[in-house]
């Protein structure tokens, strides 16, 4: 039978070093804030490993199927029997079903902070010993694979959202093409001025639960808010929460500077193409936006794409974390070989390809410090600046439930069916018992 649900307490979380989403770009502290060794049952570092493994990934990184799997097999002698890529939006329920049935079909799965928390707490992911962590991994990037002071995997890339703008659009609108908006007020003014000829100044991706959550959370952080207080009480209906919802509604319904398609776009992979094809002027997106916007076939280029910090409402800037990683299923029958894959994905060999071919931020300290990284991904300079400001994702065991309930009220507010205060009050009332269910 699956491991029983473990109810945490607020005291345990606050005292045990809870890890929040939000990788910074440098640092050497353990994700739990402690140097204690991992508890018994954690997977230790392995020597030689063989056999075969199966991997269930999302559709973010094509570099593995396009050559890195072959490299891994040559280096380790381990066979990747099955490597499947699936849409991120379909994976949560698939993982939950697989784990509940103790299915051992896949040894390795992709994960992010919310799923690491949810499935790790449920006992469905293999804990990894602190001693088994590669020394080259940037420690804060482990937030994507950690919860409650335990590590359940290794990161495959780091990611923080920043602002991208089309310099040609700015110049034609009489705006400085080399200086992006520094505040929310400047951003709104620019987006309004850029909305012309059937093209909107700003586009985002809030067409599914995860997207609605991310866009709301980002705006709440830009308002200087926090999603939870120090005791993990939700703050959706706080002044910052209501202000964030109001800013989004105003941008869409009052200023009419947000593309209505934003409410249907469900994936950042689609948003990057909207920008790269010159169909919008400003996006807040992940680092791979640069790679797509400067590749062959794009109507933008390295010369016409600007990049800078997200413009804040009550703070200079803030952002959300989008780092991903790999975890090992507790039901895997070859955990040693699976661990070899995790080590390979976070190694300099893989990280070089992820940076240069796809434009994601590296989790390898060696690659982070390599001058070739800045040359291949100039927006690294902006990410270094972003470390001075709050970056969070709040991955928790209840993240999926929060996405679902919040998206309903965000969508209703955006469509004028609920006032921002009404929407946030309702979402707050629905979230509180969910948090209590987990924390007691």
From TrEMBL:
Pfam families: SBP_bac_1
InterPro entries referenced in this protein's UniProt entry, alphabetically: Bact_solute-bd_prot1 (IPR050490), SBP (IPR006059), TAT_signal (IPR006311)
UniProt-listed PANTHER family: ARABINOSE-BINDING PROTEIN-RELATED (PTHR43649), DIACETYLCHITOBIOSE BINDING PROTEIN DASA (PTHR43649:SF12)
Identification of the protein by name: Extracellular solute-binding protein
Annotated source species: Phycicoccus endophyticus
